[in-house]
Design goal:
By secondary structure, the chain is mainly α. Helix content is about 65%, strand content about 0%.
Length: about 70
């Protein structure tokens, strides 16, 4: 992956479960660091949401939120 010269940074708060998911994505995708993994997730989400009909995307998001709110 190419080196970025962007100096803009963001702060992000995540739960332990979200960090575990991020680490799993990073490992599976062979990404060099968390920043690369997060950029991948953002671009992947943008791509998926651009090709899915709105109703399916909303249903998917609601389902994921229900799963995340469930018992750990």
């Amino acid at each position: 992956m190419t080196k970025r010269n962007n100096n803009e940074r963001i702060a992000l708060r995540m739960t332990e479960k979200e960090i575990s998911t991020l680490n799993s994505i990073q490992s599976s995708g062979g990404f060099s660091d968390r920043s690369a993994t997060i950029r991948f997730c953002i671009n992947f989400t943008k791509t998926i949401l651009s090709i899915l009909p709105a109703a399916i995307a909303e249903s998917f998001i609601e389902t994921i939120e229900e799963i995340d709110d469930g018992p750990d």
